Amino acid sequence: MESRSYTYFDSIDHREVVRTKRVDLDQMLDDYEVCLHTYLSCHRKAMAGDQEALTRDQAVMEQTMVLQKKIYNAAETNELSTAQRDRMTTIQNKMLHVLQ
């Protein structure tokens, strides 16, 4: 097993990775919010009888579920900051409120 000593530059690299990961998660939350907004819009149109919206509704929901799974995985591994967790909860509560 190789022994490795850590330098100042290692800590800079680690901070950059953490910062980049947080930005990626923020972007993922942005995308998730847009997907949910689009899904809710399609859902309303589908409920009003728009057949094309029903098709779009399914495609958007699939994309939303993929993002949701990634976000939940990040939450389970404690990769989300408190602010990101709060934002995720707010987005989900909006969706639940609209669907009720």
The overall strand count is 0
Mean of all residue-level pLDDT scores: 78
User: Low-confidence stretches at least 5 residues in length (pLDDT < 50)?
Assistant: 1-20
How would you classify the helix and strand content by structural class? Answer: mainly alpha
Radius of gyration: 19 Å
Strand content: under 5%
Question: Percent helix among the residues?
Answer: over 70%
Shape: elongated
Number of helices: 3
Note the gap between the termini: 58 Å
> Main β-sheet, in a few words?
none
SSE string, helices as H and strands as E: HHH
Indicate the topology.
Elements: H1 8-47, H2 51-76, H3 82-99
Helix pairs in contact: 1-2, 1-3
Overview of the molecule:
This protein has 100 residues and is mostly helical. It has helices at residues 8-47, 51-76, 82-99. α1 packs antiparallel against α2 (51-76) and α1 packs parallel to α3 (82-99). The longest helix is centred in the N-terminal third of the chain and has 40 residues, at 8-47. Residues 1-20 have low confidence and may be disordered.
Keywords:
100 residues, mainly alpha, elongated, disordered N terminus
What is the gist of this entry?
The chain has helices spanning 8-47, 51-76, 82-99.
